[in-house]
Amino acid sequence: MKVGIDSFACDGGKAGAGAYLTQLLKRIPPSGALFEIFGWEFDRYAYNDIAPNLEFVARCSIDGKTANSLWHLFKYEEFAKTRNYNVCFFPAAHRLAAPRRSPCPTVGTVHDMAAYYWGRGKTRERLGLVPRVILPAALRRLDRIIAVSNWVRQELVELTRVKESRIEVVPNGIDLEAFRLLPKNEESVVLIQPFSFRRPYVLCVSRIEHPIKNHIRLIEAFRIFKERTKYPHRLVLAGGDGQGSETVKRAAHASPYRNDIFFTGHFPLRSLPKLYSGADIAVFPSMYEGFGSGVLEAMATGVPVACARAAGLPETAEHAALYFNPLDSEDMADRLVTLTANREIYRNCRRLGLERVQSFSWDRCAERTLRIIQETV
């Protein structure tokens, strides 16, 4: 069996879909199946350290979503036929136009349907005409779909009319070797070159994207929290800039507590466990997440979590987090106050979080994903 793995739209192994692909590649067994990666020309060396024995076939030297879509629509079929694939796997199927025809069966993973989120409200600013027309049909062309949560599965059924029988839910995992309890110390500063973070701090790890990631309401909730408690906490926003990031930064600059709000920009994955470990609380205010990877990362490092009761977050966190209405800054602030002022609730959330992360495993995720690929052949 020869399996083609499409690394287009996986961000060179970074961010959500990229981290997912990286974890799967680490766990491909030395079996009779032959795995091969194909993707952007400039991703040629992105997976060398992770999967040194897998061949990478570079295609399409032009970056961008349009080039991505055109290649899959007009070049993929002949390419897959030439490579003699028995099955093709698309780890970021929600971010590309699946081919019109394929010479072999296809399996795709859908991490979220965020592009459709604003279609339920006043505007479709996040979903242009082409994706709105192409994406549902593209997903329906896949032979099997892996959804990372039951929330995503239900959205696929409702929004794209994919038959539920073709969807299997396989939750993402958590790397418990990287994200684990680290020794706590009494130092007032956490040093992570080139940064130094003064403790105590409230941490939010998320791409800075407005309005879907909801940073502006978090900044307002932080103001309410500071005014109520007079505590010395700072707010650390760790994540690269996305759409609308300047709007978020203007809101932070306008806050009376702007000197206590810190933007890190893109934060290196290898240093995230230490950043989490130094935090008093981790907060996830996003109005839409297909799966809560950041929630699990915080819990695994022993940090109590407050998160939005929205989309796939409650499914990931279950009873191990405090929840708030993502549209209500007062409600968000209430949870921050509770976790900092009530040590019994703080300790309980910490304990439940450490228990909750044991339900998620990249080994199980990879095993089930590879089984689905094999079954589809």
Please give a handful of descriptors for the protein shown.
377 residues, alpha/beta, Rossmann fold, six-stranded parallel beta sheet, 15 strands, elongated
CATH homologous group name of the largest domain: Glycogen Phosphorylase B
The top-level CATH class of the largest domain is: Alpha Beta
Order of strands, main sheet, comes to 3-2-1-4-5-6-7
Q: Ends: how far apart? A: 8 Å
Q: Please count the beta strands (DSSP E, at least 2 residues each).
A: 15
Q: How many domains is the backbone divided into?
A: 2
Walkthrough of the structure:
The protein is α/β, with parallel strands linked by helices and 377 residues long. It folds into 2 domains: 2-173 and 361-376, Rossmann fold, CATH 3.40.50; 189-359, Glycogen Phosphorylase B (Rossmann fold), CATH 3.40.50. It contains 13 helices and 15 strands. It has helices at 15-26, 65-74, 76-83, 129-141, 150-160, 215-229, 245-254, 272-277, 293-300, 313-317, 329-341, 343-356, 362-376; strands at 2-6, 34-39, 55-58, 87-90, 106-110, 144-147, 167-169, 189-192, 195-198, 201-205, 234-238, 261-265, 281-284, 305-308, 322-324. The strands form 3 sheets. A 7-stranded parallel β-sheet has the order 3-2-1-4-5-6-7. It has a 6-stranded parallel β-sheet with strand order 12-11-10-13-14-15, sandwiched between helices. A two-stranded antiparallel ribbon has the order 8-9. The longest helix is centred in the middle third of the chain and has 15 residues, at 215-229. The chain is elongated. The model is unreliable at 119-127 (pLDDT under 50).
